[in-house]
Amino acid sequence: MKAQWVFDGGRPCLDLVNTLRDRHRGGRELLTSPSALVEWLVLAGLLPRPVPASPELLDAAIKLREAVDRVSRGEGRPADVRLLNRHARKAPVPQLRIDADGVAHRRLDAPDPVEGALGALAVDAIDLATSEADVRICAYDDCGLRFADTSPKRNRQWCSMSRCGNRAKARAHYARTRGR
């Protein structure tokens, strides 16, 4: 079965958290292999193309994901903070390159592209934890995806209006009109 990736978290680090689905029912893992991790990183725009990844990097990504989830919900432990900081130090550093024609290019250098992508996710999680955004859990009964609520009134309820919001509104409409 092909993974059902969604990118409705509003932040890359929350999209990573959302790779464990159905948390309210014990969880359904989508990062099932190093190649699944690489596929997600490419689709998330954190890798330009597929590269090899080890089982150790998959394990590191899953540990990072759970630390991001706890920290983003205000339940982080000192070990989670250390893990985020350790990964953030591996984030790619922007480098300026000038080609032979004098055109400037921005390039991100990282020794290992997957470690660099995990570092970028850790930096995003640190930015999220220190931002004004509220992290919420989708209010739809069987969803549970996390998302950053940056709405003006901080009252967003669903991970995505096109998915869960529409289903919730349709269910409410049906319930109202069923008795007529």
SSE blueprint and pairings:
Blueprint: H1 12-17, E1 20-21, E2 28-29, H2 34-43, H3 55-72, H4 78-88, E3 93-98, E4 104-109, H5 113-129, E5 134-137, E6 146-149, H6 161-178
Antiparallel strand pairs: 1-2, 3-4, 5-6
Helix pairs in contact: 3-4, 3-5, 4-5
Folded structure, characterized:
It is built from six helices and six strands, in the order αββαααββαββα. The chain is α+β, with helices and mostly antiparallel strands and 180 residues long. The protein has a single domain, classed as Jann2411-like fold. It has a two-stranded antiparallel sheet. It has a two-stranded antiparallel sheet with strand order 3-4. Strand 3 (93-98) and strand 4 form a beta hairpin.
CATH class: Mainly Alpha
Total domains: 1
The CATH level-2 architecture is identified as Orthogonal Bundle
Global structural class: alpha+beta
Reported for the largest beta sheet, the result is: 2 strands, antiparallel
Overall outline = globular
Report the count of strand segments.
6
What letter string, H or E per element, gives the SSE order? Answer: HEEHHHEEHEEH
CATH H-level name... which superfamily?
A: Jann2411-like domain
Pfam families: ABATE, zf-CGNR
Domain Zinc finger CGNR: 135-176
Protein name: Zinc finger CGNR domain-containing protein
List keywords for this structure.
single chain; 180 residues; alpha+beta; Jann2411-like fold; two-stranded antiparallel sheet; ABATE; Znf_CGNR
Can I get a quick summary?
The protein is of the alpha+beta class. It has helices at residues 12-17, 34-43, 55-72, 78-88, 113-129, 161-178; strands spanning 20-21, 28-29, 93-98, 104-109, 134-137, 146-149. The protein has a single domain (12-178), classed as Jann2411-like domain (Jann2411-like fold, Orthogonal Bundle), CATH 1.10.3300.10.
